[in-house]
Amino acid sequence: MEFACCWTKKELAPEECPNIAEGEEELYSVYRRRVVEKCIDCPLFANDLLRFKESGHPLSEIFSIVVSEFLDQKSQLQSLGGFLTSKTREIKFLHELSLVLQTSVDLDEVLSVAMTAITAGKGFGMNRAFLLMTDKERQALCGYLGVGPRTMEEAWHIWEDVNRSNLTLRDMARLFQKNKLSSEKVKFNDILERLSVPLRDQQHVFNRALRERKPILVENAFSNPDIDPALAQLLGVDSFLIMPLISRHRRIGLILADNCITRKPITNQDLQSMETFAFPVAFALERASLYERLQVEIDKLTVANIKLKEQQELIVKMEKMALVGRITSSIAHSIRNPLMIIGGFARSLLKNMEQDDSKRDYLETIVHEAKQLEGVLEEVLSYSESLYPALDTWDINQLISGVRDELAGQLAQRGVTCVLELAPELPKVSIDYRKIAYCIKTIITSSLETITGEGEIVIRTWRDDGVVAVKISDNGTPLSPEMVETLTTPFMVTQNLGTGAGLPLCKTILEKHGSPFIIESSPEGGTQYIIRLPIKEGM
Q: Does residue 114 carry a pLDDT above 50?
C-alpha cells in the first residue's frame, strides 16, 4: 500500500515536503520532529490515515485513536501555552504598574498611570474610562477625570500612535501627564458633571458597588431594571464595568470603563484583571491625595509663619518707633522752649541794632542757626506724631501741583526743571494732606541733592488696581540699596546728604497710610520714588 505523505521516509529532499518552511531545513533529516510537527497536521497524512483505516488492518483503529488523542493533547498544550503567555504578560504588566504606583506620591502621576493602564492596548485595553472620587464635603461621588477617545477617528489616531511606539507603561503615563492630562480633564466635562451621584442614594449602582466592595459588570444597560436609563443614555453603551476603589475600608471612589468605540464584549477575565488592579490604584490614590492635602496644609502653615514673622517684625518696629517717638518728643519739647527764647532774644536784639554794628554778624548767625534747629525740632516732633494721620479726601494732582509751586524758587536756583505728567480725572484719595505734602516735598528735596548741574525731576500719576500711584523720577546720581537703607533709617548720618528724619519720616507716614515706600534705580538713570495711595471708597 502506497502513502501520499512523506512520513514513510526517514530523510527527505527539499522539494518532497511542502509544509517545511524556510528556516526549518533541519526537519528534512530529523524524522521524529518532522512527523510530530508537520506530518500529523498534513492533509496528505489525514488521507493516508483514512486509507489505512479503510484497509481493515487490525491496528488502523488504534492508530486513529492515538493520532486523535495526540491532536487533542497538542491543542490543549497550545491553549495552555497561550494562557500562560497571557498570564505572564499580565503579571509583568501588574508588576510594572505596582512599582510605579508604589513609588509615586504625585496625584496627577498616579492618575495618569492608572488611566493609561486601563485604556492602553498594552494594559487592559478598554476604550474609555472615567474616575469618580468621593467628596466628603459634598457627600457625593463626583466625576473627576475621563480618558479615551470620543470618536472612531480619534481612536484610530490614538491606536496608531501606540502601535508606532514601543514605550513602557511608565513612559506612556509620563507622556499622557505631560501632553494630555489637562485636555482630558476638560474633554469629558459634560459627562463627568452628570456622573456625580449623592452618597445617600443607596439604590444607585455606583453606591451599591462601593457598599458591596466588589466590581459590577453591567450588561444590557438599556433594558436593565437596576440601571438608571439616564446613565445608560449618558454613556451610550449597553455594557460597562464598575470597579470600586477601596483602601483600608475607606471608599476612595470608583472607575467606570467601557468599550464605546469597538463595542467589544467585556469578559469575566477583564473583570478579574481589573479587580486585581483596583487595590493598588485605590491605595496609591489615597496616599497621593493625603500627600497633596499635606502639602496644602504645609503651604498654609508656611504662609501663616511668614505673616506671623512679618507681624512680629512690625510689632518690634512699631515698639521701636514708639520708643523713639517718646524719647525724641521729650527731648524736643525740652529743647524747644530754651531755643525759642534764644532765637526770640536774638531776633529782638538784631531788630534794634545798627547795620554797621560789629556784633550784628554774631546775632544773625545765632538767628540763622536757631531757625535751623527749630526746623530739625519740627521734623522730630512730626516723626513722633506721624503714627496718627488725620485722613480726609483730597485731589492728589492738586497737592502735587501746590508742592511744585512752593519749591519753584529752590528748583530754579538749582537749575532743575520739574515736569508734571498728571493723569486727568483721577479719583480722590484718602490721605493726611499735610503729611503727604511733606513727603512729596521731602522726596523732591532729596532728589535735588543727587543732581549736579542742570537736571530734571518728573512727577507722574496714574490709577492702578484700586490705588493712585505717584512716581517721582530724577536724573541724578542713582542711590545704591545700601544708601537707600541708610536714608530710610531715622537719624542716620550720610556723607553727602547729611542727617535728619526726612525720608525715614516719609516712610513712616506712608506705611501708616497703607502704602509701601519704594526707592529704586530708574531704567533711564537716576532714582525713582514710588508711593501708592488708597482711593476713597465709592470714588
A: yes
Residue range(s) defining the domain that contains residue 429: 392-534
Name 531's bridge partners.
470
Query: 426: helix, coil or strand?
Result: coil
Task: Report in angstroms the alpha-carbon separations of 210 from 135, 271, 371.
Answer: 14, 16, 87
List the single range of 23-37, 66-80, 278-292, 382-396 with lowest mean pLDDT: 382-396
Going by pLDDT thresholds of 50, 70 and 90, the confidence category of residue 500 is very low
Q: What whole-number distance in Å separates Cα of residue 402 and Cα of residue 459?
A: 13
Q: Is 291 exposed, middle or buried (0-12, 13-18, 19+ CB in 10 A)?
A: middle
Looking at this protein, which amino acid is placed at residue 69?
E
Q: At 508, which amino acid appears?
A: T
Cell of 407: 519749591
Q: How far apart are CA 414 and CA 448, in angstroms?
A: 8
In whole angstroms, give the CA distance from residue 316 to residue 323: 10
**3-state SS, one letter per residue, for 317-360:** HHHHHHHHHHHHHHHHHHHHHHHHHHHHHHHHHHHCCCCCCCCH
Grid coordinates belonging to 527: 532714582
Instruction: Provide φ and ψ at 81, rounded to 5°.
Output: -65, -45
Domain tally, the chain: 4
Residues 269 and 222 in one domain: yes
Q: Do 280 and 174 have their domain in common?
A: yes
Q: pTM for this structure?
A: 0.46
